[in-house]
Design brief:
Helix content: 40-55%
Order of helices and strands: HHEEEEEH
CATH topology: HU Protein, Chain A
Number of helices: 3
CATH class: Few Secondary Structures
Radius of gyration: 19 Å
Largest sheet: 3 strands, antiparallel
Shape: elongated
Number of strands: 5
Structural class: alpha+beta
Strand content: 25-35%
Length: 93
Amino acid sequence: MNKLELIAALRAGADISKADAAQVVHVLFDRMADALAQGERVEIRGLCSFSVKSYKSYVGRNPKTGDKVLIQPKRLPFFKPGKELRERVDRQP
């Protein structure tokens, strides 16, 4: 499911206009991204949680040349599925 399909499902499920559904989805995603950018945790009970993990710098390798490359420290979003989501996905064929 992509963003447009999510908007269509919200439109049909909530019986609202496509513009209103799109606005809800955009606001939701923007707020989640803003919270993660500020280092906050986003939790949707029963579905999942998002957090930010910090990684230290390390020496990697350029796969093309094999040369050593210093990888700078970084912060990346981390997704963790909730128990209900794990169970629901596991029982589906």
